[in-house]
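[AMINO ACID CHAIN]
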Amino acid sequence: MATDFKSIPIIDISALLAKCDDPKMAEDPGVSDVVRQLDQACREAGFFYVKGHGIPDSLLKEVKSVAHKFFDLPYEEKIKIKMTAEAGFRGYQRVGENITKGIPDMHEAIDCYREVKEGMYGSLGKTMEGYNQWPCNPQNFKELMDVYIRLCTDLSRKIMRGISLALTGSPEEFEGGRAGDAFWVMRIIGYPVVPTADGPGPTNDIGCGAHTDYGLLTLVNQDDDITALQVRNLSGEWISAPPISGTFVCNIGDMLKIYSNGLYDSTLHRVINKSPRYRVCVAYFYETNFDTAVEPLETCIQRSGRAKKFERAVYGEHLVSKVRTNFG
């Protein structure tokens, strides 16, 4: 469970990445130090920055740059990839269409998911069946995002090996039937300077309302010069997560909270853009296998010293429920 943290730790994960596919990685002192820091961050805040992650800073900046270019386009151009249920809830949402706890969020976004082919997960996956809708302008948008998603997927898998070591002593707990065929979600989000909506509708000053994430691990790539992300500590204080160039802000999600039997918590966070400039954030979500039934790990039940705290939850059912609720 989160503590009364006042800041979010920064973790250099380069030692973990260097040994991540070594069968003896757990014996390496550098890996052990990173694992200790990950464990502490997940227990105390549920949030941490990572540096030394190996993804070029130039790519992090380029991804945000093309997102800015897309959101600068006229509404008539952006709506060409409008999100619909028929498209598997993939595509563009205008300001105010995303809903958090019944309140419209003051952001616009492109939502994309790992491809789900017809019949891939039977009735469980029917809602999410579809292909991502990518804009034709900027011209390199799809190609760039394909590279970025591939790198974020690989990085997330490696960070999860460290977290697995911290929780269970084995680096492979979140592979195979749990996350060996990991689902992913990505939201490319734009936060206007002044709350507005295209056409009539309610507005407020909350770019994204207080929420927790659904899956295992989130990588947040935010504009370098605007502080807008806030994380709530145990006392209810909102702690800013200012951008640190070249890093990702990471946080753990609901499925990891369940696996850990509450040793780790998925911490509430929100976004309020008080800057006089438009803000972009690209959030990549690394999840379990879509059809995985998630429940507390026996190791974590023993370590927590309490009975099983959570009932089993099928990730795909959890995601579909959230999608239908949020995307009004």
User: Anything to note?
Assistant: The chain is about 30% helix and 20% strand. Residues 10-326 form a domain with the Jelly Rolls fold (CATH 2.60.120.330). The CA atoms of residues 20 and 158 lie 6 Å apart. The longest strand covers residues 184-191.
